[in-house]
């Protein structure tokens, strides 16, 4: 792609560094900015820059926060004996949207993935293990992706804490609500039979 | 979507103002920035801001440029008697990539579209008409989209200049190279028969 302006080329190149944004999309976005008043671009760059430099991570759960201890961790109405372990703050947002969990979270910041060079020490696993060692936690809920990497991470953490008095659970895997059985994959269907639940429990939600 | 941080929310909101970027995509992009070193965000915001404030539009053709007269307009090897009229600088880049045109361009900055409130006076039509009036232009090639708005714009400009001694042409519409006839739409196929060309001409490219 040949550009008639170095400034434009630079902006497109930087924009196309973002995941899922190719050169063409980047050009479309940048030309859109040029058609809009300058204030729009100012607002965008200002918001991104402030966010990147000033955002904090909760010192307890590692969730993104504007203060030292995030709103969830500092909420006295939440049960601090149950911790839900997730990969990412998007998972926190997704679970919060369901309004079905009133405990705290612990954001790992990823999952163990040797292929991508991510080992246990790149994640916030130590702080989680320390919380368990302190003895205040009664239950850990693993809510990681159901992939090889997710399972590896679950198991790694499980090994670190199995000598302590803590109950560990994992979110249920099974047929999605509203799905037809015939379209479900074999592994999910198989697991949903092995891990069947008392019928009365299914009436609760 | 509930955010645990106002700064994050702000950044996501600004990002999702861009066309084709929804809230979820914006969140994904912003979280990606958070995982990258701060320098990456600095480079992006700096490039966008400099581009938005310092980029110039060529005073002759309205193409984006870093200098007053763009590289194409100031190139003595280009034929300034032929002007290709396009909507957008992306069209200039697309035509330049084909290396099949050695004249100059004129970027209108859009097309007449009453539905979107864009009239002739919102576009760079007057400067184009003035160029024709000065008598240096021998041919105008209309290379606008083949839509109602494109055709309206072509016709509007044509009416403004028809009394001057200038030849007007429009880019060929027809079956794309490599396309099967049976999949072509009727209008395109019909036009390609009406506007058929001598066979020898098709051997040239």
Automatic annotation (TrEMBL), chains A, B:
A zinc finger (C4-type) spans 58-73. It comes from the Bacteria. InterPro entries: DNA_Rcmb_RecR, Rcmb_RecR, Rcmb_RecR_Znf, TOPRIM_dom, TOPRIM_RecR. Keywords: DNA damage, DNA recombination, DNA repair, Metal-binding, Zinc, Zinc-finger. Coiled coil: none annotated. Gene3D superfamilies: 3.30.60.80, 3.40.1360.10, 6.10.250.240, RecR Domain 1 (1.10.8.420). Residues 81-176 form the Toprim domain. NCBIfam families: recR. May play a role in DNA repair. It seems to be involved in an RecBC-independent recombinational process of DNA repair. It may act with RecF and RecO. Belongs to the RecR family. HAMAP family: RecR. This is Recombination protein RecR. It comes from Litoribaculum gwangyangense.
